[in-house]
Amino acid sequence: MKTIVEHLSQYAAYHRNRKNVATHLIGIPMIVVGILTLLSRPVLPMEFLIITPASIAVFLSIIFYIRLDIPLGLLMTALLWLALAAGRYFAAMPTELWLSWAIGLFVVGWVFQFIGHYFEGRKPAFVDDIMGLAVGPLFVVTEVVFMLGLRKELKADVERKLEQ
């Protein structure tokens, strides 16, 4: 399995333009909520759990992120839980509204992504490596963490790997 530095540096290689990164800060969360909204139906109610395709996807994603980096994985857990809650909120709406929100968030999120890649002048990372779809949300969260001046060593490691 690749390390967090390998994943982030490979993804970052496609995202050097600050305008592209800014569009991803908006677009990727919209895409995540849109997907989780779509996957929040059907519901399999259990005694103390609500199991949906969305909750399974979040669970598997959390395992992936925590295996890469525990602190960032825990942050991703909290953020994905919020996205899952939003998805469940939209999924509880009548079908037309549920689909409108889900598809709208998904499509508008991708519009932001492709506008960003227009600024970048480069195709999206997932075109070359499908794992870019899983790394994208982590990249956005990590970029915010870096902007806050946190995880300087990780940022330096990613930058060093990018230079290679």
Overview of the molecule:
This protein has helices at 4-12, 18-38, 53-68, 70-91, 95-120, 132-147, 152-163; strands spanning 44-45, 50-51. The protein is mainly alpha-helical. Strand 1 and strand 2 form a beta hairpin. Helix 2 packs across helix 4. The longest helix has 26 residues, at 95-120. It is globular.
Q: Widest sheet: strand order?
A: 1-2
Note the beta-strand portion: under 5%
By DSSP (H or I, 4+ residues per run), the number of helices equals 7
Low-confidence spans? none
Cα-atom Rg, whole angstroms?
16 Å
- Average predicted local confidence, pLDDT: 94
Q: What structural class results from the helix and strand content?
A: mainly alpha
Strands, count: 2
- What is the molecular shape? globular
Order of helices and strands: HHEEHHHHH
Write the layout of secondary structure elements.
Elements: H1 4-12, H2 18-38, E1 44-45, E2 50-51, H3 53-68, H4 70-91, H5 95-120, H6 132-147, H7 152-163
Antiparallel strand pairs: 1-2
Helix pairs in contact: 1-6, 1-7, 2-3, 2-4, 2-5, 2-6, 3-4
